[in-house]
C-alpha cells in the first residue's frame, strides 16, 4: 500500500509540474515576430494522430497573444532541460514585446538562437510561421539545433471579461512534435524537456514574477466575484 501511495504522489507531482513551451507568432500587420513562455497546454483529442487539438491559455495582455489571436497561426516549441537557468528562457519569459524586440538580430547573437520559417498548407493557402532554433558557434563554425515544435491554428477562442486568460482551442497543422520528441513520462524520467519547477529553481526572478502575477490575478478575480469596485 505504501508503494502505491508513493507512486501516486510521484505521478501527481509530474502532473502539477507542466512543461514550459516557447510560443512564436508573427504580427500580420508589421510582419514582426514575437515570442513568450507558456505552460498551460492541454491535449484534448480523443484519437491520437488524427485531427489533433489542444487547449492553450494565453494572457490577454501579451503582444504575442495579440499576434496569435489576429493571425490565428503560431508555433509551439518544447524546450530542452539544458536551458535550465539560461538567459533565453528569462528573455522570452520576463521581457515584454511592447518594449523589447525579442527576436531581433542582436538578441539572437547574444542568446544563441535564430529565427526560421516553416511553411504550412491550410485549405490550399500557404502560411509562413516563424520558429526558433538554437545556435552554437565554436571555432568560427555555427551549428543549428532545431527545437521540437508543432504548428497550430486557433479555431475557437473563449474570453471572459473578469479573466486575464484567453482560452484557445487549436488544431495541429504539423503533427506535434515534428522531431519525434513529443513529451511523455519516459522523457520526463530522462529529463529531456524543461518543466516549470526546474525553471523556477534556476531562475528566482522568473518565479517571483509569476507569483506576483498570480497574486494580482487572484485579487482581481476575488474582487470581481464579491462585486467590489464595479
- Gross morphology is globular
Per the CATH scheme, the topology name is Pnp Oxidase, Chain A
Total helical elements: 7
Share of residues in helices: 25-40%
- What CATH architecture would you give? Roll
Give the C-alpha Rg.
18 Å
Strand content: 25-35%
Q: How many distinct folded domains?
A: 1
Show unreliable segments: 179-190, 220-230
Assembly category: single chain
Which structural class is indicated by helix and strand composition? alpha+beta
N-to-C order of helices and strands: HEEEEHEHHEEEEEHHH
Q: Could you tell me how far the N terminus lies from the C terminus, measured between alpha carbons in angstroms?
A: 52 Å
With strands numbered from the N-terminus, the spatial order across the biggest sheet is: 2-1-5-9-10-4-3
What's the β-strand tally? 10
What is the residue-mean pLDDT, rounded to a whole number? 76
CATH class: Mainly Beta
Main sheet, how many strands, which sense, barrel?
A: 7 strands, antiparallel
What's the CATH superfamily, by name? Answer: Electron Transport, Fmn-binding Protein, Chain A
What does this structure look like?
With 230 residues, this protein is α+β, with helices and mostly antiparallel strands. It has one domain: Pnp Oxidase, Chain A (Roll). 32% of the residues lie in helices and 34% in strands. It has seven helices and ten strands. The chain has helices at residues 2-15, 63-71, 87-94, 105-111, 185-190, 196-202, 204-226, and strands spanning 21-26, 33-38, 41-43, 53-59, 73-78, 113-122, 125-138, 141-146, 149-159, 165-174. The protein has a seven-stranded antiparallel sheet. Helix 6 crosses helix 7. The longest helix is centred in the C-terminal third of the chain and has 23 residues, at 204-226.
